[in-house]
Each structure stands twice: as structure tokens, then as C-alpha cells.
Amino acid sequence: MSDNRRLHDRELACFPAHVDREPESGNTSIALIRDISLTGAKLLTSQKLSDGDAIQLRLYIHDNLERPRVVQAKVVRVEREDKGSFWTYRVGVTFDEAVDDCAPQIHALALRQKEVFKE
Q1: Confidence at residue 85, expressed as pLDDT on a 0 to 100 scale
Q2: DSSP H/E element including 29
Q3: What's the rounded Cα separation, in Å, for the pair 43 and 116?
Q4: pTM for the whole thing?
Q5: What is d(CA 114, CA 76) in angstroms, rounded to the nearest whole number?
Q6: Domain 11-116, CATH among 1.10.2020.10, 3.20.20.70, 2.40.70.10, 2.40.10.220
């Protein structure tokens, strides 16, 4: 059996997001989504999170930045980055529900970024 437990392929698609550990508290931090699938993502953040934390993400993937895609997620992996990095933590999350409605935007963004950064 493979160690890869992902249900969907990850797309390299970098875009901003907000992270809320306790959405009612107003304690929001910014993150950078590094890659994403329909069921999870890897994000870079300066907010300390722990395995098992329940968080809310606001994903700015749609053209309308006034209406981000809000998703509930669970932290499944946390890695500390080098001390010199602005993004202190690399965090893996799984979404409580798949973001099937974002599939076209995720794929289109990944293709655009692939063209920009091709070698």
C-alpha cells in the first residue's frame, strides 16, 4: 500500500488566504497557499498551528476578492521553516468538505502559473 493518502492530485497554485483558529475571535493571520487539491492544501504561514487544530480558511481563488471561498479544515502536518523565512511554518491541511466548486479556478491558476514560471 502506498503512503500517498491523497484522494485528489495537488496542483501547484500559489495564492493568498486568511487563517482563523477561532473565527469569532477576530484573530486572523495571512497565509500563502502553496499547493491545493479538492480535499486539502499546503500553506505557508507565520501563525503557530498544531496537528489536529480546526481552522477556517478564506481562499482568494475566485476573481471576486470580495467573496473568498470559506472552508473548514483540520491541520494534519506542521513543519518549521528556516529561521530566516518570513513564513515560519509549512502546514498541511485537509478540508472538512471537498471544494469541488473551485476545481476550474484551481486548474486555471495552476496552468497560468506554470506558464509564468516554466524553465
Answers
A1: 81
A2: strand 28-36
A3: 21
A4: 0.84
A5: 27
A6: 2.40.10.220
